[in-house]
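Milestone M4 deliverable, item 7.
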Amino acid sequence: MFHDGGLVMTRRFCALITAAVIVSAGAAAAQQGGRGTQPPPATDRLAPPKPAPTGAWWHTGAPLERQAGRPDLTGVWFGAASGDLSRSTLPGQELVLTLYGQQRWDTVDHAKDPNTACLPPGPARMIMMAHPAMIVQRPDVVVILTESQRTFRIIYTDGRGHPHDIADYPEWMGSSIGTWDGDTLIVDTIGVNKRTWLDTAGHEHSEKLRLTERFRLADANTLEHVVTYDDPVFFAKPFTTRRLFKRQVGDWILDHSCLENEKDRELLLPTLGDAGR
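Output delivered:
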């Protein structure tokens, strides 16, 4: 039997032993990586894996695809603005105006550019705007969608011909039919509304305009666009231009409305010929 002093000392000794056991257990848990309810430091937390990109093949990084054995022109493309077509002609294919064409060139009013009036830009100029354009290719049709005014153009590649009455009912984008020559898409276009301009500089055309376009992938990310313009009313001979377009990141085009909040048109003044170039 212990006396009172011995009993107190025994209780104190047991309390010390219990505290030591608790401290030892906590230290062991810490050594095993446990930190109670506290989250681990940021250096110990791994970032979640990034999801694989989804969408079109050129956006996901998949290999270049082909459509029915043909190169796939599908993609979002952008080059320089339309400017002056005469600066993009091939050697020996220079732009030469007729007397009437020269007269119109010298007196064209840049304040009346149909693009300024928010009218469709025409088949070739639409992909030479200061906006990207998307090409969507299928075996029987190729569609060009431009961010500028959300305008579209359809090129039929199913073997059909031009409508027999296209001359009586011209269209802003004309009638376009395409055929393949190897890896080059050749597009023949007639019936283009003569109210369109061919470029920003002010080259006009008549209802007799005929376009022959050649679309070809120079490489996976470069689209070559060669166009022959034939209009005996405005041009003394056919001429040919060549432009390159670069593939853009992403697989979408943005929304754009020319008429939204338009305030400039009513302030434009007549600007003739070279004064507007």
